[in-house]
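Case study: PTS sugar transporter subunit IIB.
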Amino acid sequence: MKKILLLCAAGMSTSMVVKKMRESAAQQELDIHIEAHGVETIQDYLAEYDLFLLGPQIRFKKDELQKLADEVNKKVEVIDMMDYGMMKGDKILKDALVLLG
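Here is what the predicted structure looks like once written out:
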């Protein structure tokens, strides 16, 4: 099972994106665990998750967070602003799957 963690500042819109991503994963019968947490919690989840996606509003933290993730060979990527704003969970999931290889 692959695990994706969305990181955000406040969490309201990100939790809606997670819901859409989960729905898309269920429709495709994918074995993927997706959650969202505040960006300050990344240290707690580095070993547990395979991919970290940032809400566009905190894209400025990407380099800092990628340095942490590099220590455990994980990727940090920013969710496309348009996809995020339009709550395109299926597209965000598709992009995440590409990143996961």
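For the exam, be able to explain this: Residues 2-96 form a domain with the Rossmann fold fold (CATH 3.40.50.2300).
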